[in-house]
Amino acid sequence: MKILGININHISSAALLIDGEIISAACQERFSCKKMTREFPFQAIEYVLEENGLTINDIDAVSVPINPSINLDFNKKSFSQIPRWFPDYLYLIPNNLFQILKPNTHKYIKQQFVFDEKNNLDIYYINHHLGHAASAYYMSKFTNSAIFSFDGFGERTCTMWAKAEDGRISVLQEQWFPHSLGSFYEMITEFLGFQPDLDEWKVMGMAAYGDSKKYEDKMDQLITLKEDGKYELELNLFNHYNFDVPGHFTPKLTELLGKPRFSNEELEQRHFDIAASAQVLFEKVLFHCLEYLHSVTGESNLCITGGSAMNCLANGKIQELTPFDNLYIPYAPDDSGLSIGGALYVFHEIFNNKYTVKQHRSSCLGPQYTDVDIEKELNKYGVSYIVSDKLANDTVEYLTSGKIVAWFQGKMEFGQRALGNRSILADPRNREVKEVINSKIKYRESYRPFAPAVLKEKASLYFEMKENEEIDYMEKAFRVRKEKQNEIPAAVHNDGTGRLQTVDKRDNPLFYGLIKAFEDKTGIPVIINTSFNIKGSPIVCTPGDALKTFFTSGLDVLVIGNCIIEKGASGNS
Questions:
Q1: Containing H/E element for 31?
Q2: Given this chain, do its domains 2-67+106-128 and 142-329 carry the same CATH topology?
């Protein structure tokens, strides 16, 4: 069975599922070079099909992780009486019939186009948060698990409590928009002068430089904790739900927190304090929701998903501050991962295929290029390079000499994080490396942290975590052990944490081998890993993208396939 998953929410993407296995997946932004694009993912679809020798006619089903029938309950006469163009009938008819039927639930939509006896197009529209839940549970190693999904909103739901037992997901309760923890964080992002739905990372980075106590009392007025694990926003301070008026907050919030920052204004200490207070409140609400989820499920396993699950600061505290023992967060819990989640839901829940507990580990699902492809591209542009037969050792020599290295290898990762195939690497012992990468390469704010990639078996020696715990996708931040902070200062954020990635030899032997070679030379099993891109651009996809980014930034060395390019060097040997 072949299922094509499509997502056009926030970051559009496509994924191919064959007999329940995730075969290929990619975000449209990597092909169009338009970061976080929502355009229809034609190029991503073309990639996942052509990579596997298929055409659209070979597909048995298409999944879409949004169920518009939920929003057809309300009959708005100006939209539902007279069709403006003929395809309007596709929603006009059910919208009016729903007024007679009055459905209580909307499980999913099946839309079938029959072209001839051998050629159909079957499209399944599933509930947004069920797509999120499937993207986590069916990729975890859990048979039974509690599931928590939260984001801005999807259809009407912004928070969902669920459980999974023996391969089936059931919803326990939902909280509807506008009372959204994701929207709260979006509002704070805008209040601090950044773009909501894009720059929440910046607020997380700022939180480490602030004093949360200074705004704690005021921030607590924004959200009230309720029974049954729910919460309510103080809506007279918010405006995110008024879609006819710009802005996410009202003048009353300005009265409470002071003047909002404009994007071109200098950051003041109070802005960092507000970010810190917002992060604390976010965590307080999240843990309140999770305490309730544990009380009604009794599960020790937890899957967290949805766009708000990208908050690695909160994620790193869940096992310490809630009753859950085991936690799984997928490599793309945000909307980009819904192309995968939607396809998994259709395969297991709609087509009723048996769920086999076998964790899907690797996010490397995108395009890859052979050494022949790469050398052809380098020669095309007359780029000087050397061919290495000891790639790891040569790369370590550059790193230990203070060079910033771009690393382009194997299949491109899926999601918003580079995990060792499309990465920028640096020596964590060098205190100056954060400033160099932020200012001369990424062209971004100085307070933005970088992820330490560490050999899995050595991670607990450097971070306050369980021995051999797997943090495969930079999904959690942990405190760096005090006695190790001076060894890897570039990996330590201002609050003493690092958003780490544990690297397992079975998942990425080449990247593992590089870190091991670095350890052999320095005694440190850690390197700095950040995504291979510059501010405003998506992570690189092709050799051409890699060359463009390399030559238009302050990068020193590009290691691409078995070729090494050093600025100012001559070669082709």
A1: helix 29-32
A2: yes
CATH (one of 1.10.60.30, 3.30.420.40, 3.30.1360.120, 3.30.420.270) for 142-329: 3.30.420.40
Which helix (H) or strand (E) covers residue 379, if one does?
Answer: helix 371-380
Q: Which two tokens stand for residue 47?
A: 């990639």
pLDDT tens digits along 280-321: 999 999 999 999 999 999 999 999 999 999 999 999 999 999
Beta bridge partners of 526: 454
Place of tokens 């396809």: 343
Q: How far is CA 541 from the centre of its chain?
A: 17
DSSP 504: -
- d(C-alpha 530, C-alpha 428), whole Å: 12
- List the domain boundaries for the chain: 2-67+106-128, 142-329, 371-566
CA distance 164 to 171: 9
Torsion angle of C-alpha atoms 70, 76, 78, 79, degrees rounded to 10: 10
Q: Tell me which CATH code domain 371-566 carries.
A: 3.90.870.20
Tokens representing 148 are 């928590």
Domain 2-67+106-128 has what CATH class? alpha beta
Tokens of 379: 């020669």
HSE (CB half, 13 Å, CA atoms) of 426? Answer: 30
Q: Is the peptide bond prior to 178 cis by the omega test (within 30 degrees of 0)?
A: yes
**Amino acid (one-letter) located at 466:** K
Write out pLDDT tens, residues 104-154: 888 899 999 999 888 899 999 999 999 999 999 999 999 999 999 999 999
The answer to whether residues 164 and 243 touch, using CB atoms and an 8 Å cutoff, is no
Q: Which pLDDT tens digit goes with each residue over 230-261?
A: 999 999 999 999 998 999 999 999 999 999 99
Strands across the sheet with 61-64, in order?
A: 21-27, 13-18, 2-7, 61-64, 119-126, 108-116
User: How many angstroms separate the CA atoms of 307 and 230, rounded?
Assistant: 18
Asked if 443 contacts 535 with a C-beta cutoff of 8 angstroms, the reply is: yes
Do residues 411 and 365 lie in contact, with contact meaning Cβ atoms separated by under 8 Å? yes
Q: What is the DSSP letter of 428?
A: T
